[in-house]
Amino acid sequence: MLKIQSTFNHKVVISSLLICISIIVFLLFEPALSIKYLNVIKQSIFKNFSWFYILTSTFFVFFLVFLSVSRYGDIKLGDDNEEPEFNLTAWFSLLFTAGMGIGIIFLGVSEPLSHVLSPITNQYIEKQALFQSIFHWSINAWAIYGIIALAIAYFGFRYKLPLSLRSCFYPLFKQRIEGNLGDIIDILGICTTLFGITTTLCYSAVRLTSAFAEHNITIQFILGAVGFIAILISLRKLSSGLQFVSHINLILSICLMLFVLFVGPTSYLLSAFTENIGYYFSSLIQVGFKTYIYQPEYQSWFTEWTILYWAWWFSWAPSFGIFIARISRGRTIREFIFGVLIVPSIFFILWFTIFGNGAIWINENIADGKLNEFIDQSGKLLFTFLSYLPFSKLSYYITFIIILLFFITTIDFGVYILNNISSKDKSVVSPRWQIIMWGIILAISSFTLFQIGGIEALQATMLIFSLPFAISMIIMTFSLLKGLRFDYEYYNRAYDSQRWLTDDWRESLTNLLTSHDQQDSISYLKTTALIAMREVRQELIGIHELDVHLENNFVTEDPSLVFTIKLPNNEQFNYILRTIECEETTDNNSEETSKYYKLQICNSNVELPYEIHHLSKNELIADILQNYEQSLLNLSSID
Predict the structure, then answer these.
(1) What are phi and psi of 376, to 5 degrees?
(2) Distance between CA atoms of 8 and 16, rounded to whole angstroms?
(3) Buried-exposed string 378-405: b where 16+ CB fall within 10 A, e elsewhere
(4) Residue 513 CB: number of other CB atoms within 10 A?
(5) pLDDT digits (tens, 9 = 90+) for 256-267
(6) Contacts by 599-605, CB closer than 8 A, 24 or more apart
(7) 201-222 confidence digits (pLDDT tens)
(8) What is the pLDDT of residue 223?
């Protein structure tokens, strides 16, 4: 019988798909009833939890700023001597393409025009309209992405845990993240991601259809072909497939933006850009806490725009978080935070200035207010706006290509993230059929919901999943802070000089400065560490009658020894010694690397595994007993 290879965590995948399929089937066969119930839930969340979304996003901004200026800012997302995997140009291009998304292409024109006509802008109408658009897309949104991306990257590259959502909770829940608790986190992540991406794709398909409703263009066929291409690109590596498309997309987007800048009212737009920067940063804190509780006439606008946006960003947080974490290895926390918060935000201020202020200016000075007719058709509004500029046909084609490329990158992000969350072992390359499966699920879900017009229901579903995920992200911040605090204290603690006050200090120095291969490390485990642990075990069992277990594993890629002592409260003290494969550059002017192996200790007293050198047998026994003593002291302090 042919056995299908898979890296899936079957419990997570099956549970997630059952939940998502149940919702989609309900929408498909009972659209009116499902939309009615989901809208009731949507309005309930708007009424009772709007304050929570506002407070949470603003808290994330302050938390990230605190980390960037604190002592934790110098900690690297990886080993202390590790260099960034992607250079700044590649990193920023991937950040921009991921962060821009397909929505910014349509909403760069339509959202500022919508705010101009809304009751929220009763003074300095144009400036306030631009501020609201920029506010929805910049620092607060990226703080949501930044929190989860930082946690995933930190625990993945610093703690050497899998690059997954459940790893972010390790300091709080320890090994329980490998059980049902971790599965629940991943199930929530998959459902939130699937409906967040599906909602985005459906919205974009509706906008694109409205833009070409009068032309003989079969949008469904074009999007189907784009989805097929996206799945093919997903089969390639991140650095070769998605990065290539991202670079092209970024270049075309910047070209389109500069085109509008130079053929439009250039001087006016540059002056508006300057003022928009100042007005945005000066108003950020005040509006960041604003819930319009004292202005009930604005509540409808507030929930349908700001709160819906915040829910949308939370639904995209798992995908952006894992993706941004994946491309940020080797950067310091300070560099990461400023890169993620400030650089994209400045870009969005520029984007909304050029397209938003540009559209408002053309509407008032050239189009005689005709653009207002297409406020509810953002796709058609975008191309109508371009028709008032020179070389409109050229800009049509470029914009259309950009939109199709964004469809590709959106599907690619979704496939990559869904497969990552659903995989049990993140270090193992997934078989191609899994990539294809997730691509097909995204395509079918989006196409089905697009055909039945389930946008309102998708909004409600997105809110339902984003709310508990937002709560889990608050817990994640405390987990991250706990991990950072231990990290700093461990690497900055006073150095124990007693170890060198022996007759064997020359041998210890040699071990400290010698790079060992895998065979050396395995030999150390067998000839020194195993003997040391056996002596301790014999003493603890024979003299003190304790329950002690010693397990060796020398046949895996990461050989290890596991030493376990049962504590009086029926919990266990674990002392795990394992070898870790590392790489180092052989020449400063070369990209060639060589492998070496270091020893790593993980025990019950610390969240972060720490490195040791090839200690002597007695030194290793001393380290084991010192940690065991600390466990007993911790236990007595709890009692």
Answers:
(1) -85, 5
(2) 12
(3) bbbbbbbbbebbeeeeebeebbbebbbb
(4) 8
(5) 999 999 999 999
(6) 599/521, 599/524, 600/160, 601/575, 601/576, 601/577, 602/574, 602/576, 602/578, 603/573, 603/574, 603/575, 603/576, 603/627, 604/572, 604/573, 604/574, 604/575, 604/631, 605/630, 605/631, 605/634
(7) 777 777 777 666 655 455 555 5
(8) 55
Residue 540 identity (one-letter amino acid): L
DSSP assigned state of 356: I
**Distance between CA atoms of residues 256 and 108, nearest Å:** 12
For residue 126, give both structure tokens: 């144009």
Q: H helices within 118-179, ranges in order?
A: 125-137, 139-157, 170-173
The owner of tokens 């993945």 is 156
pTM of the model: 0.76
As a whole number of angstroms, the distance between CA 382 and CA 402 comes to 13
Mean pLDDT value across residues 471-491: 86
What is the Cα–Cα distance from 358 to 352, expressed in whole angstroms?
9
CA 548 – CA 204 distance, rounded (Å) = 60
CB count within 10 Å of CB 536 equals 20
Q: Is 121 left (phi over 0), alpha (psi -120 to 50) or beta?
A: beta
Average pLDDT in the chain: 81
| Domains in the chain, CATH or no CATH each | 10-487 (1.20.1740), 498-638 (no CATH)
CA dist 524 and 182 (Å) reads: 34
How many residues does this entry show for the chain?
Answer: 639
**Average pLDDT over every residue of 610-616:** 71
* Residue 620 in this model has a pLDDT that exceeds 90: no
Judging by DSSP bridges, how do beta strands 560-566 and 593-603 pair with one another? Answer: unpaired
Tokens of 452: 């039945």
Q: Which residues is 565 bridged to in the sheet?
A: 548, 573
Radius of gyration, CA atoms only, the chain:
28
Coil, strand or helix: which one is 493? coil
581: tokens are: 């494969």
Q: Are 298 and 50 in contact (CB under 8 A)?
A: no
Higher pLDDT, 213 or 446: 446
CA distance 34 to 28: 9
Under DSSP, the state recorded for 8 is B
Q: Is pLDDT larger for residue 492 or for residue 83?
A: 83
Instruction: For residue 41, count other CB atoms closer than 10 A to its CB.
Output: 14
Q: Which residues of 43-56 are buried (b: 16+ CB within 10 A; e: fewer)?
A: eebbeebbebbbeb
Tell me the C-alpha distance between 197 and 315, whole Å. 8
- What tokens appear for 428 in the block? 């193992």
Q: Report CA 350 to chain centroid distance, whole Å.
A: 24
> Sign (positive/negative) of CA torsion 162, 165, 167, 173?
negative
Structure tokens at 184: 């629940």
CA 291 to chain centre: 27
Cβ contact 117:374 at 8 Å = no
- HEC letters along 210-278: HHCCCCCCCHHHHHHHHHHHHHHHHCCCHHHHHHHHHHHHHHHHHHHHHHHHHHCCHHHHHHHHHHHHH
Upper half-sphere CA count for residue 133 (Cβ side, 13 Å): 33
Q: For residue 290, which of 148, 142, 144, 131 has the smallest C-alpha distance?
A: 131
